[in-house]
Amino acid sequence: MPTAALSSDLLKIVAVDEPWITADMCSFVMADEKTGELLEVQCPAWNCQANAPIVGNRIGNHQRAKEEFRIMFGPCQWVGTQIVHIVPVLESEPGPLPDGTAYLAVLTGKREPDTPMFRLAVAMREHWARAVEDVTRTRQWNPAHLRRARLLSDSLTDEVAAVLADGPAPKPDAPMSGLRYGDEVSDLARFVVLLAVSEKRGEPLEPIQKMITDQTRLLDRLVTNANAGETRLTGTGAYPTRPKGGDGIGEPTSGQ
Q1: 89: nearest Cα among 1, 9, 184
Q2: Are 105 and 210 contained in the same domain?
Q3: I need a labelling partner for 68 at 20 to 30 A (CA). Which of 21, 88, 137, 150 fits?
């Protein structure tokens, strides 16, 4: 059972064109004490709740725990879903949290990507460039593009904990921000790519330039509030927050 040290490592061990989840979505997890290999989990479906073996990095065969569930819903649709045990290993050193202005300079080539966070931002830009090119050709979004964007966003959000390890600490009553740091950087990277595409096509640049300006200012405010202790950023806890899968009725969705 592979263990991803970083969210970005999932790209190497998960077939991103198929549904996948992380082990922290499950209420019960049994793993090998020495290797960390997953052995068994409780199925994350509310209408299943059975313990299931892990076979080949996937949720193995099992029956729904309650007879009424088996009658109503039939075989559990989570069988065969990929599952990964993530052990975050953060690479960033404590220091100032980059704001939107800093990321914009990196994304536009005016500043070297000399930190893990900046390198992830550049990876986001390169990913969105490939995604936009693919969309232009096929006229539709490939769900795999969105899953890859999520992985990069999770990696960047995870790094927040390492950067803020020495402070500033949020005030005791500071609310959790409704914005995910990595998502906002990803949006900025996407807008930078769209500006280049619009420029190449000879399209009006003002609308996308405004989007870049607004997104940069949003990130600037987010970091300013975090530095003042006025807000908590996702990923600054003991274990980074990750999106939960499922479509609300107990079956896996096609992406994260």
Answers
A1: 9
A2: yes
A3: 21
For residue 195, which of 210, 185, 181, 214 has the smallest C-alpha distance?
210
Could you read off the pLDDT of 120-146 as tens digits, one per residue?
Answer: 999 999 989 988 888 888 887 777 777
Distance between start and end Cα atoms, the chain: 20
Average pLDDT for the chain: 80
DSSP category for residue 240: -
Calculate mean pLDDT across residues 165-182: 87
Separation between Cα atoms, residue 153 and residue 117, nearest integer Å: 10
223 & 114 share domain: yes
Q: Are residues 63 and 164 in the same domain?
A: no
> Residue 28 — left, alpha, or beta (φ > 0 → left; ψ -120 to 50 → alpha)?
beta
Q: Is the pLDDT of residue 20 over 70?
A: yes
Q: Does residue 236 lie in a domain region?
A: no
Q: Which amino acid is at 30?
A: M
Q: Which helix (H) or strand (E) holds 191?
A: helix 181-201
The label of the residue with tokens 């082990």 reads 23
Is 178 a residue whose pLDDT tops 60?
Answer: yes
Last residue of a domain, one of 63, 86, 109: 86
Do residues 83 and 57 touch, judged by C-beta distance below 8 A?
yes
Q: What pLDDT digit, counting tens, does each position of 209-220 carry?
A: 999 999 999 999
**Residue 105 shares a structural domain with residue 25:** no
Q: From its phi and psi, is residue 235 left (phi > 0), alpha (psi between -120 and 50) or beta?
A: left
Across the range 167-185, mean pLDDT stands at 88
Expressed as residue numbers, the domain containing 65 is 3-86
